[in-house]
Design goal:
The chain has helices at 3-7, 13-24, 37-46, 50-56, 115-119, 124-140, 170-185, 214-219, 221-232, 253-263, 281-286, 300-307, 313-330, 344-358; strands spanning 77-79, 90-93, 145-146, 192-196, 209-210, 236-239, 243-244, 247-248, 269-272. It has 370 residues and is mainly alpha-helical. The chain has a single domain, classed as TIM Barrel, CATH 3.20.20. Helix 6 packs parallel to helix 7 (170-185), helix 6 (124-140) runs antiparallel to helix 14 (344-358) and helix 7 (170-185) runs parallel beside helix 9. 49% of the residues are buried. Its EC number is 3.2.1.-. InterPro entries: Cellulose_deg_GH3, GH, Glyco_hydro_3_AS, Glyco_hydro_3_N, Glyco_hydro_3_N_sf.
């Protein structure tokens, strides 16, 4: 075979190399884009080993705490994916009001007005542009999942993270945050809503126990989540640190299984807040799909629980399918993130437009008494 045959008759060198690489790239049945995300996820699942399944349901540390895998993008969280089957890592960055913890991936990220400020515009389009900008800059810095989307209601005005949330009204909060996440999802990132649920204060956040009846939850805090989920259909929900009626939120069967996955028909995956996982079997039974940022419970302990039949293989498979389905439905597999240069001028313009629209004064045009 001569040089021309190797490179492809008459093809430019670069094009020929690309053609050869494409021809050599492995193909899988789940690469068929005409299949649904659920079908593609189940096809991948059939080929996975137990160790590969366990590897997909936990993180691998975060900067400054552990030595990160070589494939890490330096963000707040990482799952390694399944390289053998063409499933890429999930690279996560905090991005509540702009991309943060972006390590050396980019020298610039737009600092947006607070979520609370953007919510004050009462304009869903502003929220959408907010999320779209975040997702665009995430992808340019090599990430495919955002850890933003806070929708906790303002119950404690001294809460240290109120600026990340969307106020005290469930209709407004759910509508604005839903549109923010919709803007993220449509840029092919895994969008995330947090912190589920009744997570309304930072002081004692690991130990506080929110005592609240089910009807009150459904008509307030959970209503905001329900509205946001209905608008954006995000791929991930982050459960919170606190306890709710005696059980940690990340191992709370009522919150995760009965309401979120049952009543709300959420088909994405639930990941823990960072170090918010407290058990293997109990959390798994309750509906937690992924531990972050490490593998203290969803690594060797979860594998042993499966081997000892304390956790069924079907239950583990459900966790895995939800993660895979999220990757397919969000487009992160078909449209992988590629690093580039952030458009600084565009970021300034979007941030200024959102800020200007947030400075509003609402009034009643009609009054009861003249």
């Amino acid at each position: 075979m001569n040089r021309k045959q190797v490179l492809g008759w008459g093809l430019p060198l670069a094009l020929a190399a690309t053609t050869i690489a494409a021809a050599q790239a492995p193909t899988h049945t789940w690469d068929n884009k005409s299949l649904s995300a659920d079908q593609r996820a189940h096809l991948v699942l059939k080929e996975m080993t137990l160790d590969e399944k366990i590897g997909l349901v936990h993180g691998y540390g975060m900067p400054g705490e552990t030595e990160l895998p070589e494939s890490s993008n330096g963000g707040a969280g990482l799952t390694l994916g399944v390289p053998r089957l063409g499933i890429p890592p999930i690279q996560m960055a905090d991005a509540a009001y702009g991309v943060t913890r972006s390590a050396p991936n980019g020298r610039y990220s737009t600092s947006l007005p607070s979520v609370l400020g953007a919510t004050a515009s009462w304009e869903p389009k502003s929220a959408y542009e907010y999320g779209k900008l975040i997702a665009t800059e995430l992808r340019l810095q090599g990430y495919n999942m955002t850890l933003g989307g806070g929708v906790n209601l303002t119950r404690e005005p001294r809460d240290g993270r109120t600026f990340e949330y969307a106020g005290e009204d469930p209709l407004l909060a759910g509508t604005m945050d839903g549109n923010l996440m919709l803007g993220e999802r449509e840029q092919h990132v895994i969008s995330d809503v947090k912190h589920y649920a009744i997570n309304d204060q930072e002081n004692g956040r690991f130990a506080v126990n929110a005592i609240i009846d089910k009807r009150s939850m459904r008509e307030s805090d959970l209503l905001a989540f329900e509205i946001a989920l209905g608008i954006a259909k995000p791929s991930a929900v982050m459960c919170s640190y606190n306890l709710v009626n005696g059980d940690h939120a990340c191992e709370n069967d009522y919150l995760l299984n009965k309401v979120l996955k049952g009543d709300f028909h959420f088909d994405g995956f639930v990941l823990s807040d960072w170090s918010g996982t407290h058990s293997a079997a109990k959390a798994s039974h309750a509906g937690l799909d992924m531990e972050q940022p490490n593998d203290f419970f969803y690594g060797a302990p979860l594998k042993k629980a499966v081997e000892d039949h304390e956790v069924t293989m079907a239950e583990l498979d459900d966790h895995v399918v939800r993660i895979l389905r999220a990757q397919f439905s969000s487009g992160t597999i078909d449209f992988p993130a590629e690093k580039g240069v952030v458009d600084v001028d565009n970021g300034y313009k979007v941030a200024q437009a959102i800020e200007e629209k947030s400075i509003v004064l609402l009034k009643n045009e009609e009054t009861c008494c003249r």
